[in-house]
Each structure stands twice: as C-alpha cells, then as structure tokens.
Design a protein that fits this description.
The structure holds 2 protein chains of 2 kinds. Chain A has no helices and 11 strands. Chain A is an all-beta fold. In chain A, strands 2, 4, 5, 6, 9, 10 and 11 form a 7-stranded mixed beta sheet that branches. Chain A is globular, with a radius of gyration of 14 Å. The mean pLDDT of chain A is 93. Chain B has no helices and 11 strands. In chain B, strands 2, 4, 5, 9, 10 and 11 form a 6-stranded mixed beta sheet that branches. In chain B, strands 1-3-8-7-6 form a 5-stranded antiparallel beta sheet, with no helix packed on it. The termini of chain B are far apart. The chains are: A mainly beta, B mainly beta. The interface between A and B is medium-sized, with 26 and 18 residues.
Chain lengths: 117, 112
C-alpha cells in the first residue's frame, strides 16, 4: 500500500521555541493531508485539513497562528508548533489522501511525539 | 461539526468470546464509517469500514453493522484472541478520503 512518512518520530524542545513536523507521501501525490493531535489515552482530534497550494482549514478551537501548516508541494505538508508550551506535548499524526478516480484512500503517518520541557 | 460517541471506553473479554463496540454520530450527512485499531504510540490501522449504502459488512472474525436511520454503527469481533488487545476507534466522515471525526476509543483486553 501507499506510504506516508513523518519526521521526526520524537522531538523534545524547550518551552517557547518552535518545532516543525513533516508529513510526506512517499509514493503518491497528496493534494490533501490531515493533521491530528492525540493526547495520552485519548482520541485523535482533527486539527486541520492541509490543501496543496492553499491555506489550511482549521477545526474550531485550533489556533491557526500557533499551529502553522504549509502544504507547498504535492508530497509534503508541514506542521509548525510555534512558541511551544508543555501543554502542547502530544502525539501528532498526519494522514494523506490518495488521488481520486475510483476511490480515495487515507493513509496515516507513523506519528510524531512532541515533548515540550 | 460531527460528534462521534463511542462505548464502552474499556472492555475485557475472555479469549474466544465476542466483543462489541458501539458508536453513534450526529451528522446525518456522514456516509463513511471506518474502524481503526491502534497500538500504543503507533499509527492507526484500518481494520474494516462501511459505507452508508450498506447495512453490514464482514471480514473473517470482524463485522460492522450500520443503522443510518438511528445514526449508530457497531464493531463485532468474534472468537477474540490476545492479539486483538488494543485500542479501537470508530470514525465518521462525509465520504471516503475526507477528514475523519473519531470516537473516544475503546481499550479492548482479551484475557487468555
């Protein structure tokens, strides 16, 4: 099946700094990707829909200026957590949609653990 | 937006018994309902899905039923095995390939 890769898998950053997480579709072009956040023992919460070449669509309650999403190419979307704080520590996971024409499929990345100290 | 509720939050069954997890959704426009299995710290894995034009779907020991009128759907696992132990999430979406709204998750433990 298709492969979606995230980098880094683990990251520790100091409070107040910014950290970037990458989501790549390795063997298909993804015009649309999705970013989720998952706190320990909780569900995956949709943060935003990332569209190639246009602005991301954020879910209600998600600060777009804090969680910057850039989808500059058909295979890469990035999530930047700006001015990170300990409460931003979470598991961030992306998914990508395969091109249409017969049925889209969603593939998830491996996820990225962010710890803010 | 869509709101998906999932029950129970934890479930323990004896090996060989059946497990049932139930979900309800709020948006009648939702037409695609996948179920995911997630192990700690790993990506969710799709185990079965169902579209709104189908009432039931089965894949070996796993089945999903959908009642679109009542806006609820259920996951059924028969002949459970210890390796079925994981957290299971239901989700609802407008269509295949759209964003998912996940349920709260069910931690399933299969006791050998």
């Amino acid at each position: 099946g298709a492969v979606v890769s995230q980098h880094p898998s683990w990251v520790i950053c100091k409070s107040g700094t910014s950290v970037k997480i990458e989501c790549r579709s390795l063997d298909f072009q993804a015009t649309t990707m999705f970013w989720y956040r998952q706190f320990p023992k909780q569900s995956l919460m949709l943060m935003a829909t990332s569209n190639e070449g246009s602005k991301a669509t954020y879910e209600q309650g998600v600060e777009k200026d804090k969680f910057l999403i850039n989808h500059a190419s058909l295979t890469l979307s990035t999530l930047t957590v700006t001015s990170a704080h300990p409460e931003d520590s979470s598991f961030y996971i992306c998914s990508a949609r395969t091109p249409g024409g017969g049925g889209n499929t969603i593939y998830f990345g491996e996820g990225s653990w962010l710890t803010v100290v | 937006g869509e709101n998906v509720e999932q029950h129970p939050s934890t479930l323990s069954v004896q090996e060989g018994d059946s497990a049932v997890i139930k979900c309800t959704y709020s948006d009648s426009a939702s037409n695609y309902f996948p179920w995911y299995k997630q192990e700690l710290g790993k990506r969710p894995q799709l185990i079965i899905d169902i579209r709104s034009n189908v009432g039931e779907k089965k894949d070996q020991r796993i089945a999903v039923t959908l009642n679109k009128t009542a806006k609820h759907f259920s996951l059924h696992i028969t002949e459970t095995q210890p390796e079925d132990s994981a957290v299971y999430f239901c989700a609802a979406s407008l269509y295949v390939g759209n964003q998912f709204y996940f349920g709260t998750g069910t931690s399933l433990t299969v006791i050998p």
